[in-house]
Design a protein that fits this description.
mainly beta, three-stranded antiparallel beta sheet, single chain, elongated, 7 strands
Length: 101
Amino acid sequence: MAYNGGSHQIIINHTSIEFYENLKPYVAREPLKLTFSEEQEGKLIIVKEEVNPNGTRPTVKEKSVKLSEHLITQLLRTTSDVPISNQFVEGKVGGSVNYRS
């Protein structure tokens, strides 16, 4: 991406990521998954952990305007010959029932 006279790299993980709560041991349920609304579809989002009495919960903190279908297709089809697989998070983030604060 060209911005402010420089070139910046955007790396797309082609594997979908699921974000889950991290729960304290006394919470008697499975960690809930972060779900995205129809309004968030096609937008760049920033997910952050929010601390609550039961542990932490992933929350969408910021989002962009909706990207065009053409741009989304371009981003998802672009690949790199550089091995970058270790730079991505696993397919599932969170889900611990051993959360300590």
